[in-house]
């Protein structure tokens, strides 16, 4: 999903600085014709890749991403047909791999945070201009109460970022019993793409979320992508059982997608492969169905003989593939039943279409989110719900191929109806999840700078640079939304912004600030930090008993920059002038 900022900084460090009018994220110092776009890739299949026999040979063992890119650029330049390459970084691994691309690649590649993309602007032209961001100012977020001092530092009130405001419900909180116990107020989003996540690595955490990438079987490792048929859903339940057995009391969030019908989930595949349910899914356009060459993505899986095809729209942006993809299938091809492997799309306009006595929305809530792999599982507390229509991507479905609307025969005139239907479906889902005693990661009040509807990149709400202003807004302010919302608080410097979950750098500062601002539903930890590494559990701070807060934080003197909050068993202080935290236990009488 995301790159550590240390990796990005290393990559940019070997790049020529770009002018403000240059839409590249950097240019290679060895040849400025090579444009860098971070977190992007042109394809996940073989449609734009050089054949293995024609691809350059390279070793990047033990070198940094920028060194690998510097080696790859001249090799690509000297290889006929090569116009671009991608460098993959597996966090905390010394190995790097490279993919090589032909002229069917693009200067406007797909988002994929596991890759850095380098392309020759002489061959493919410059990258497109980025979409305009919102101008700071009036926001559709609800106005603060009278006397509110929001927004705090920055241009956007809580629940909004530079791209807009969250469209998920803003008034839902968990129905479980609240607690101020610190080690029951922790949360993490681990992943191991090459196998199950080691339960010992998440022991002690109160809430643990597992992504669909967990246990998918990259490389030669076994995983659900190699199974026939794929069984991501079943392995997610098995991972849940293993995790809770090793850490009783831990509750699990699991992945679901609100718009993508992912056939590696058995519950989805059963409907996707039954023609009776075709109205529940988006189709390719009549033009593409009549002539597959009109599509921008493969309609058929040619690993099968004859090729396995489907008229239901699907792309391969984040899809397992054979021999290699986002998850590596076993020979002879990926197996998701009678359809090609790919990302399909639910059609929210068919929410009330009934098949065999059950409407789409009933199935969606009762079986896709419900059942023993979801709401019906006592160890599963809720979901991380991914993707949407009209928010993350204002022009169509999020994280899909850029030509998805065109390939489905849809245009701007169709989008309002789809977005309206999607928002209705999403609201029904969120309301139902909470009514049944569960929750969704997306409903946490978060400050994700990339996707406010996602929250998988939580940041610290109190930062050293704006410490006093932040604590006045969130700690001493009786109108703070933290009082009544479920809060997600990221360890410094923030998920997707360089936090190393194996070696946290500001534990004492983050815990103190968290205790100064938190309400009754608040959770400190990490969001998405990639796959296959460990997670530090700061036991000294997490297992301490601070009691319960006796009131809001106060500033010791007007503009002193020193903030104190009394808890029943400790006094919490942050001196913003020196950014020094102090936690003083109270003697028990």
Describe this structure in words.
- This protein is an alpha+beta fold and 589 residues long.
- The chain is built from twelve helices and 26 strands.
- The strands form seven sheets. It has a seven-stranded parallel β-sheet, covered by helices on one side. A six-stranded antiparallel β-sheet has the order 1-2-3-6-4-5.
- Strand 17 and strand 18 (358-359) form a beta hairpin.
- The N and C termini lie far apart (50 Å).
- The model is unreliable at 1-13 and 132-151 (pLDDT under 50).
Give the topology, please:
Blueprint: H1 5-13, E1 15-16, E2 26-28, E3 34-41, H2 65-77, E4 84-89, E5 96-101, E6 110-120, H3 121-124, E7 160-161, E8 164-165, E9 186-189, E10 207-210, H4 232-246, E11 251-257, E12 260-261, H5 266-272, H6 286-290, E13 300-301, E14 308-309, E15 314-315, E16 343-345, E17 354-355, E18 358-359, H7 360-368, E19 380-386, H8 404-407, H9 415-435, E20 439-440, H10 467-474, E21 487-490, H11 507-517, E22 522-528, H12 539-542, E23 554-555, E24 562-566, E25 570-575, E26 580-585
Parallel strand pairs: 9-10, 9-22, 10-11, 11-19, 19-20, 21-22
Antiparallel strand pairs: 1-2, 2-3, 3-6, 4-5, 4-6, 7-8, 12-16, 13-14, 15-16, 17-18, 23-24, 24-25, 25-26
Helix pairs in contact: 1-2
Compute the number of strand runs: 26
Specify the structural class: alpha+beta
Describe the main β-sheet briefly: 7 strands, parallel
The poorly predicted ranges are 1-13, 132-151
The count of helical stretches stands at: 12
Strand content: 15-25%
Overall shape: it is globular
- For the largest beta sheet, what order do the strands appear in spatially? 20-19-11-10-9-22-21
Mean pLDDT: 88
Distance between the termini: 50 Å
């Amino acid at each position: 999903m995301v790159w550590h900022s240390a990796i990005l900084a290393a990559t940019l460090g070997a790049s020529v600085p770009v002018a403000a009018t240059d839409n590249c994220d950097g240019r290679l110092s060895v040849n400025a014709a090579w444009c860098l776009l971070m977190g992007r890739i042109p394809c996940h299949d073989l449609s734009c890749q050089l054949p293995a026999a024609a691809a350059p040979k390279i070793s990047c063992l033990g070198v940094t991403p920028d060194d690998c890119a510097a080696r790859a650029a001249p090799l690509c330049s000297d290889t006929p047909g090569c116009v671009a390459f991608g460098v993959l970084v597996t966090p905390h691994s010394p190995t790097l791999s490279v993919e090589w691309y032909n002229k069917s690649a693009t200067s406007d590649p797909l988002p994929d945070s596991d890759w850095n993309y380098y392309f020759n602007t002489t061959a493919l032209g410059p990258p497109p201009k980025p979409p305009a961001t919102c101008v700071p100012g009036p926001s559709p977020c609800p106005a603060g109460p009278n006397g509110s001092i929001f927004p705090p530092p920055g241009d956007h009130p809580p629940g909004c970022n530079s791209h807009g405001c969250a469209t998920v419900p803003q008034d839902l909180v968990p129905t479980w019993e609240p607690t101020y116990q610190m080690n029951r107020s922790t949360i993490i989003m681990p992943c191991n793409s090459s196998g199950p996540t080691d339960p010992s690595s998440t022991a002690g955490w109160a809430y643990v979320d597992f992504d669909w990438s967990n246990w998918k079987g990259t490389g030669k490792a076994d995983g659900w992508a190699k199974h026939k048929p794929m069984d991501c859903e079943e392995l997610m339940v098995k991972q849940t059982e293993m995790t809770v057995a090793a850490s009783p009391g831990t509750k699990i969030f699991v992945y679901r997608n609100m718009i993508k019908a992912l056939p590696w989930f058995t519950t989805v595949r059963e409907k996707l492969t039954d023609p009776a349910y075709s109205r529940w899914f988006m189709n390719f356009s009549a033009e593409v169905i009549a002539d597959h060459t009109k599509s921008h993505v493969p309609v058929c899986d040619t690993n099968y003989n004859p090729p396995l095809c489907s008229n239901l729209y699907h792309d391969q942006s984040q899809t397992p593939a054979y021999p290699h993809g986002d998850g590596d299938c076993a020979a002879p091809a990926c197996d998701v039943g009678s359809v090609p492997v790919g990302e399909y799309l639910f059609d929210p306009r068919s929410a009330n279409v009934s098949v065999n006595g059950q409407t789409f929305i009933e199935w969606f809530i009762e079986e896709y989110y419900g059942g023993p792999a979801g709401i019906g599982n006592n160890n599963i507390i809720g979901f991380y719900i991914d993707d949407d229509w009209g928010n993350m991507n204002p022009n169509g479905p999020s994280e899909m191929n850029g030509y998805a609307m065109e390939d489905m025969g849809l245009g701007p005139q169709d989008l309002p109806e789809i977005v309206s239907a999607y928002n209705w479906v999403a609201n029904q889902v969120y309301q139902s999840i909470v009514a049944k005693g569960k929750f969704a990661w997306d409903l946490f009040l978060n400050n994700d700078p990339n996707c406010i509807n996602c929250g998988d990149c939580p940041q610290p709400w109190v930062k050293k640079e704006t410490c006093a202003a932040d604590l006045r807004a969130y700690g001493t302010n009786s109108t703070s939304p933290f009082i009544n919302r479920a809060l997600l608080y990221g360890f410094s410097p923030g998920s997707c912004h360089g936090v190393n979950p194996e070696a946290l750098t500001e534990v004492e500062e983050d815990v103190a600030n968290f205790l100064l601002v938190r309400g009754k539903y608040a959770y400190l930890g990490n969001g998405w930090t990639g796959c296959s590494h460990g997670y530090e559990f700061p036991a000294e701070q997490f297992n301490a008993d601070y009691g319960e807060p006796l009131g809001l934080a106060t500033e010791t003197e007007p503009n002193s920059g020193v903030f104190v909050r009394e808890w029943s068993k400790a006094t919490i202080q942050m001196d913003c002038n020196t950014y020094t935290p102090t936690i003083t236990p109270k003697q028990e009488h």
